[in-house]
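INTERNAL AUDIT FORM
Audit reference: QA-55
Scope: verify that the stored structure record matches its stored sequence.
Auditor: D.O.
Record contents follow.
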Amino acid sequence: FAFLVLCSLTMVTLMYFLFYQAYIMPLDTSFLTIAVGGIAIEGLCGIINSLQAMKISHLTLSQGFLLLAGMVSVMTADTAFILKELLPSEAWIDQYRMMNQS
C-alpha cells in the first residue's frame, strides 16, 4: 500500500513541476517526462506484485480496501500523465488560432 501511494504522490509532484511550473528549462522537461514515465512503470509493477500477493495470501477487508485504494491512486496518476502528455495544451490551441486569423 505504502509503495503504491508513494509512487502516485511522487508522480503527482513531478507532474506539477512538468505541467504547471512556469520556470522550467527545456532540458528539464525531457528529464521530468522520463522520470514520470519511469515512476509510472514502477507503479504498474507494484500493482502486479500486489495482485500476486493477494492471490497467495488472504487479506482482511481493510487491507484489501487499502490495497485497492493504492492501485486506484497509481492508475489515476498514470492516466492523468498520459492524458496531459498526449492532449494539446490550451495555450497551443490559442496560439494556433491566432496564427490562422492573420
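Auditor finding: record pair retrieved intact. The mean pLDDT is 83.
Action required: none
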